[in-house]
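Mods, move this if it's the wrong board.
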Amino acid sequence: MSAIDFSTFPLYLAPMAGVTDPIFRTLCKEEGADVMETEFVSSEGVLQAWERNRRYAAFEERHRPLGIQLFGSDPAHMAAAARRLYDALHPDFLDINAGCPVPKVVGKNGGSSLLKDLPLLQRIAEAMVKEFAADGVPVTTKIRIGWDAEHICALEAAKRLEDAGIAALTIHGRTRSQQYSGRADWSIIDACARAVSIPVIGNGDIATPQDVQRARETTAVSGIMIGRAAMTAPWLFRQAKHYLATGEILPAPTAAERVAFMLRHARMAVESEHYGNELLTLRAMRSRLLAYAKGIPGSKALRPQLARVSSLAELEDILTQLPLSGS
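Not the wrong board. Structure tokens:
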């Protein structure tokens, strides 16, 4: 993957529906994220309702290197949708979603349901790799370690995907049945990374700079993907990079700095009109604001207000109630 230098141990921002929109990606890029992927896009949606689904794949030049993540279950349709996305937007790579556990994706035989049919997953990868062979555009894949504890298939999946020609593989260390409970199994991620020659990016339970260092030093992964931890602390990328370079832990942002971050994110979102008007934008931002507020002294009492916020002025009024002096 020419756009990504794996010798630097890159830090990826995980694709998360409803979270990793262009505004959040911009903020994470500023905080040190090296590689990004869009929210997942439906292959059938791209082919049948392109204009309505195009916004999920939108990105800015400053987000590069960036991949568009696609889900679906038909090899020909996945390849055709990937071609439409690439010709319109020119991402640095295309990523196959074979890890999403949510029912609406799994119910369409996409996401982690592909782990129950590895030959189909391989055919999808082969179709997409063939589609872009002449263009030199990398195709990557994200998987989980298996469907459930009785069906751990990451190693076989990794080998099949390598044979199919994918350029890199991200592995989340949980099964689909675990969703986001329990602990990620990094021993399986490590075994896969040692079994294939393509770069493997590890994902799961990365919440501190020390977690990043531990993964780099104790496994064979070529990079790290950070998901849920970035939702509450996008500055984790900056902290992790500093720790890897110096061994020093940067102080966490103060409460005042976190509040300023919340306001900036909300203002950027409104200005972008990505979600529509101000009311629609603040509705879309509510879960983001609640995540950012977690742990700020005095914020617990304000959570009901944040969960109903509908304008920037209202958000500013709510946040002025926090005791930020000296923080």
